Amino acid sequence: MSMQDKFQHLYAVISGQRFLKKQGLGNEVPFFICPFKPEESVDMERLCHQLVNRLEQTGVRILQINLYDLSIEILKERDIWNQVLEIEASVSKGQLKELLQGVLDPETHLVPAIADTLADADFDVLFLAGVGEVFPYIRSHNVLNNLQSTAKEKPTVMFFPGNYTHTLETGASLDLFGKLHDDKYYRAFNIFHCEA
Question: Strands 180-184 and 171-176, how do they pair?
Fold first, then answer.
């Protein structure tokens, strides 16, 4: 599918009343994965900005949250940012990952920060981006699992650099960068499989 085709499909689905009113979900959380090839990241970021502009012109309000930018905000708010920068060169990658996993834990820090943003915003659809940038210290399935109780009122679209696959043998899997196959997540819909 070309980027233009992706744009047209995303616009048609997200601007539709069926999507906005969360119809046809069978009591599932309104989470949608927008998978894309990692090498298309720059094009997808551009597409996302164009999509937001076009949707907002038609009255669909989008709240965008970039997980990487939010992570930096949290580190700065907790007065940890400068410490992380200071120790980064002197600790192992494993130690840095462990530190960041602790201070940016989805349940105790990241999702509450997202909840605060949601509470202060007037929007119709939440866009989550920056998934690849926060790997490996934040895993997308952990974010989605912890968001289920927080972001269920409005549709959420996660822009995901990789594959979201469903097979009878393995179930549903978020395969980051098309290579990491260990993140099981069952409650989202592939937005490219949704009807406009």
Answer: antiparallel
Rounded to 10°, the helix 140-147/111-119 angle is 50
Could you say which DSSP state residue 4 is in?
H
The answer to whether 130 and 101 are in contact (CB under 8 A) is no
Of all helices (H) and strands (E), which one includes residue 13? helix 3-14
**Rounded Cα gap, residues 112 and 68, in angstroms:** 15
The token pair at 148 is 């289920």
9 dihedral zone (left: phi>0; alpha: psi -120 to 50; beta) = alpha
As a whole number of angstroms, the distance between CA 195 and CA 58 comes to 19
Q: What residues are paired with 56 via a beta bridge?
A: none
Distances (CA, A) of 30 to 57, 148, 195, 196: 23, 9, 14, 15
Question: Distance between CA atoms of 166 and 112, rounded to whole angstroms?
Answer: 30
- The H-or-E segment that residue 161 falls in is strand 156-167
What tens-digit pLDDT sequence spans the chain (196 residues)? 888 999 999 999 999 999 999 887 777 789 999 999 989 999 999 999 999 999 999 999 999 999 999 999 999 999 999 999 999 889 999 999 999 999 999 999 999 999 999 999 999 999 999 998 998 888 888 888 889 888 888 999 999 998 887 665 556 777 777 665 555 656 788 898 888 7
Residues facing 157 on adjacent strands: 32, 127
